[in-house]
Design a protein that fits this description.
Radius of gyration: 23 Å
Low-confidence stretches: none
CATH topology of the largest domain: Ribosomal Protein S5, domain 2
Shape: globular
Number of strands: 20
Distance between the termini: 65 Å
Order of helices and strands: HEEEEEHEHHEEEHEEEEEEHEEEHEHEH
Helix content: 25-40%
Structural class: alpha+beta
């Protein structure tokens, strides 16, 4: 009997060791895990600020980590609200984790500057934003630019013709027929590079040539006073909307009316709110923080947020100006 008991103990220990090993062993893919929404108070500093009393603006983030082998074999071991993401989506071939971290840090730095411009302009302050080219935001894996252009490249010329804005870039690329090559001059890490690639027909307009990228405005920004934002090691561009709302609150605009307002969305210099990733996890994070309102990009993001809201008030927005107007003129009852 003792021998059987000893055998069971040994098998149990071996089983625990196998489980521990499978939990420790990383798989190839990634997993997105919800994080609790956090207030921006104390993380956004505006010179000569006079914050409106009551309420808070919250930002939402997502944990991104390697999937564990045990989680691949036994999906029920994954955290609640987790989503599996194939490795090639987050780390395209030829991209290292270090490069991804750097790109996320640059995206965060850019979102802080853009949020400052958008908020201060909406409040009537004079802000200088001198265009310096078309900033590459995303490179599609099925387009000709993939493997040549990178996020955070700045396109400054097309076949030798200078371009300073996204419309100028689209106009110059559009001068050729789909299928013809194009030479883009880009600014990368302080250096100038010439990269040649073919064009392909746009899915929405076959007569229009594209190279498979999305772009935004790169600009030299001069603010009338200092704005400082520090989220530590949080990266990515999706906190632009809550940044701008908190800047407005710091300058005395009552956008919360005593409520806890969470928001997510990437901002462009014109104030438009672009879709973001991880909306399911961010909605769960907003719920866990027990916020009253969650502002999200209109469209598919809003539809996904509503499916996971479980009673949380979802407010779709297309622009910062719309969000600011709605919050200041239509106070919510918390």
């Amino acid at each position: 009997m003792k021998r059987f008991a000893g055998t069971f103990v040994v098998l149990g220990l071996l089983g625990l060791a196998v489980v521990a090993f499978l939990w420790w062993l990383p798989a190839n893919d990634f997993v997105l895990v919800p994080d609790r929404a956090k207030p921006l108070a104390g993380k956004v500093t505006v010179e000569s600020s006079r914050p409106a009393a009551g309420g808070d603006v919250y930002y939402v983030d997502v944990f991104v980590r390697r999937l564990r082998t045990l989680e691949r074999l036994l999906p029920f071991t994954r955290p609640d609200g987790a989503t599996l993401v194939p490795e090639h989506v987050l780390l395209p071939p030829g991209t290292s984790q270090k490069q991804l971290d750097r790109e996320n840090a640059l995206d965060m730095e850019r979102s802080e500057k853009i949020a400052s411009v958008v908020a201060l302009r909406a409040l009537g302050y004079h802000v200088v934003a001198t265009p310096r080219g078309a900033l590459v935001v995303e490179v599609f894996t099925d387009g000709p630019a993939f493997g040549k252009l990178r996020p955070d490249d700045v396109v400054v010329a097309v076949d030798g013709v200078p371009v300073r804005t996204p419309p100028e870039l689209r106009r110059e690329i559009g001068r050729r027929h789909p299928g013809r090559p194009v030479r883009l001059t880009v600014r990368r890490d302080g250096k100038s590079l010439d990269l040649t690639m073919r064009t392909i027909p746009s899915p929405s307009d076959p007569a229009r040539p594209i190279v498979g990228i999305t772009v935004d405005q790169d600009a030299k920004i001069e603010l009338p006073f200092d704005v400082h934002i520090d989220l530590g090691d949080v990266g990515g561009p999706s906190a632009g909307l809550p940044f701008a709302l908190e800047i407005a609150r710091k300058l005395g605009r009552d956008i919360t009316h005593g409520c806890r307002v969470a928001a997510t969305g990437e901002l462009a210099l014109d104030g438009s709110v672009a879709p973001i990733g991880g909306i399911v996890q961010k909605t769960i994070g907003a719920r866990r923080a027990d916020v009253d309102i969650f502002l999200v990009p209109a469209g598919q993001n809003a539809a996904q947020a509503r499916r996971n809201a479980h009673g949380l008030h979802i407010v779709p927005v297309k622009t910062f100006q719309q969000a600011f107007r709605d919050l200041t003129t239509n106070p919510e009852k918390c």
